[in-house]
Amino acid sequence: MPDIFGIPPQALFGQLLLGLINGSFYAMLSLGLAIIFGLLNIINFTHGAQYMMGAFTAWMLLNWLGISYWWSMLIVPVVVGTFGVLIERTMLRHLYKLDHLYGLLLTFGIALIVQGMYRDQFGSSGLPYRIPDALRGGTDLGFMYMPNYRGWVVAVSLVVCLTTWFVIEKTKLGAYLRAATENPPMVQAFGINVPRMVTLTYGFGVGLAAFSGVLAAPIYQVSPQMGADLIIVVFAVVVIGGMGSIMGSIVTGFGLGIIEGLTKVFYPEASATVIFVIMAIVLLLKPAGLFGRVR
Amino acid sequence: MSGTGGMPRHQQILFGCMVAFLAVAPFVIYPVFLMKVLCFALFACAFNLLVGFVGLLSFGHAMFFGGAAYVAAHGAKVWGLPFELAILAGTATSALLGLAVGALAIRRQGIYFSMITLALAQMIYFFALQAPFTGGEDGLQKVPRGKLLGMISLQNDLTLYFVVAAIFLAAFLAIYRIVHSPFGQVLKAIRENEPRAISLGYKADQYKLAAFVLSATLVGLAGSVKSIVFQLASLTDVHWTMSGEAVLMTLVGGMGTIFGPIAGAVVIITMQNYLAELGSWVTIVQGVVFVACVLAFRRGIVGEIARAIRKPL
Amino acid sequence: MKKLKNMLLGAAALTALALPAAAQTNVKIGILTDMSSLYTDLAGAGSVLAARMAVEDFGAAAKGIKVDFVSADHQNKADVGSNVGRQWFDVDKVDVIVDVPNSGVALAINEIAKDKNKVFLVSGAASSGLTGAACSPNTVHWTYDTWALANGTGSAIVKTGGDSWFFLTADYAFGHQLEADTAAVVNKLGGKVLGAVRHPLNANDFSSFLLQAQSSRAKIVGLANAGGDTVNSIKQAAEFGIVRRGQNLAGLLVFLTDVHALGLETAQGLIMTEAFYWDQNDASRAFAKRFSAANKGIHPTMVHAGVYASVLHYLKAVEAGKSATDGKAVVERMKAMPTDDPLFGKGVVRKDGRKIHDMYLFEVKKPSESKAPWDYYKLRATIPAAEAFRPIADGKCPIAG
Lengths: 295, 313, 401
Known about the structure:
The structure holds 3 protein chains of 3 kinds. Chain B contains 13 helices and 2 strands. Chain B has helices at residues 9-24, 31-51, 62-77, 83-105, 110-130, 157-180, 182-192, 194-199, 204-230, 240-253, 260-275, 281-296, 300-309, and strands spanning 147-148, 152-153. Chain C has 2 domains: 25-144 and 280-357, Rossmann fold (3-Layer(aba) Sandwich); 155-274 and 360-388, Rossmann fold. In chain C, strands 2-1-3-4-5 form a 5-stranded parallel β-sheet, sandwiched between helices. In chain C, strands 7-6-8-9 form a 4-stranded parallel β-sheet, with helices on both faces. The chains are: A mainly alpha, B mainly alpha, C alpha/beta. Chains in contact: A-B, A-C, B-C.
């Protein structure tokens, strides 16, 4: 096969696959952010910190209580999600009628506090987390060596994203959720406890972030800073996909992972900036994002 | 005080107190610290011009601050420009950059406006990281302070302080004039109800663009002065967290008030300065301030005072 | 009347004689370090502790030197750091600033210390420019620099057959310098550099870059980055089987705390150059024991050791000159006196401000070889002091000529 822009096609396949893997983190994180924005009208800047808490909670469970990775996948989202519920109950709910800015600043403040406390407790260089035994090793795909764990990440992330999409877009519960986004008093009138639904939605979004954190723990270093820089990238993904659009953030998450992966081959220095270039272009051409509606 | 003409009496008094304080302060407080406060106060005031009086929240003002800092520093150090011209060059760069960015960004509203400014600022950051003249993360160091009008050496902190204080007061009065001019009234009308302002025959986009460029220019002035005072321009100045600091100062002080951003800058810079010894607790304390402001003092320090005495400040 | 006058004169003469002996020298040490991000563990609060231990061990109080401390977080921002530095020198009357683990901040402090004629003892910063083009009569660069790391690791690996290299470089000035310094050593010894990829700071995912390194077929993948970036690249290299498939990793800037963060299972076999390891001799072990007891169990890195030793030597110079006010004079005295301390042994401070001592090439142990917590390194080679640092002529330092 001929080279594509000087890169052998096998290597290119490898890079595309890696992009897809990174994209699965973007997809899961931006999904949570999009759900929260859709219903609460709040830009959750604590998302990165909650992702970090997910990874740390998994580490604490393993090292302090001997609870395995598999149980962590269930327990951690619940634990961190509960933390989210507490934040919503005590602070966020006073801000719903205000400008986006206040929710953003409040959650940003909470993120600073959380990250500071973890750093004080665990130091800055991070902690190791072993890949679970069942997923160790890798498979030779011919064009690249694929660690089994990365394959697992893509599979799990796809399942989680599509299930969430299905629940919100195709079930009765999801219909209530969407209705509550459009017209809360009306849904309340149907006898549904809207404030509780809002609380649980926030908890679910936070739980998704924590779940991504558990998935990330064996690949990336478990450190207090791990979510700090990620948040503006993930936020950009949500904006590109269209704020509040579920499918938009999933597709954009995977898509941008791939674009970023390609940038790492052709112009690696710019790989952290390419997402913002795309965001500027998209917003100028399609103001509401790729999949969003103007509201 | 000819510049204060038209100010209500209580604002005149406050302004007089500020001038008096600025005249005495350097003999009691460390002048370099005061200069830092003044630079950031100007940054916050200029930022507030856009968010407080036009309702446009920019997440990218670091590009004007840092961009001007780099140009001023490069001008003074490499081209050997005198103090005034270095600052002028930095400010002019910001004005031009503001024109280009503003023309793109004002086409969108609300959070989308914020995100476009953020995206463009990230590109400027990338440029600053890649361009050879900026010195990467080491920044441009050893920037000479030079001489005022080619005669008075600015090497002495106290001399430089009075120059910076004069620049600050001039810029502050300029902002006051802008806000209270007919032009400023149109801006407020656009903030309150853009469609109505348009139906009254105002070309809202042109007004917004003009306000954006003015804001960028004054932020550039702050950035240029900062780089000469500290003899340093670095990536910190163009990083997105710098834009966040402008938001924080404005919010803490009181958005849409005249004196608020100054109070915000004083509080935040003092905190950063004296909490530096707390080590890892700095970010925690900052976070608590954020949370407390949003939950309890949403109008900011000056905003709450103004409400208590029922007079605009 | 005359008698009284004589008595008074006599008393005055007595006091004049007695004063120098009883006079107290005041020293204020400012520890400027990273307490809130990347370098907190390898410097941070540990550096403050190390400085205090040095003052204690020197017995400053008994020798008539009164020492005060201040410390601050520079947040890895040159403007924050320079601001603190100015204020310390101008207002708080600090005589010496120590540590500063960040080259950008260190270069700024270097200038300010020169302007104000104070002293700057560098331990944490890597830039070899501090004793090169930017060298200053007020600065001593103690622990290590980019040239020493590149030279130590680069030459040791080329000599043992690792003659083709591919670099993973942080797209920052220090990353570029580390890469350039190492590439120069590799080329000089007849090796080849097959390529390099520049990644953004805090890139998080390195798999793509590692794949590029893999397809270059270089024998050695050189990591010209630091902190979290190095840790993540090593971790992911293990995941993608880079080492198992025949390539070797060379960490150019790796600290003990990074190895601790990685765990031996992932870090085993990694080769790096350092100036100090806690388990070298009885003196270093004793130091580590006291240090870790007061520092949450974290064992001293070479940066901590450098802070300790440089403060100790500084105090000796202050004692000899009985004053800390003239920074240039103190540094000249530091250069004139040979150094001798429990952690680095005997050495000298060169004219350009470079401290000269042995450097060591370490290899990270296998999990099975590690007998105790923090038992991580085995010594591969000692790089003698004469070869460990850049020859003074190559630095182009104006004051060394």
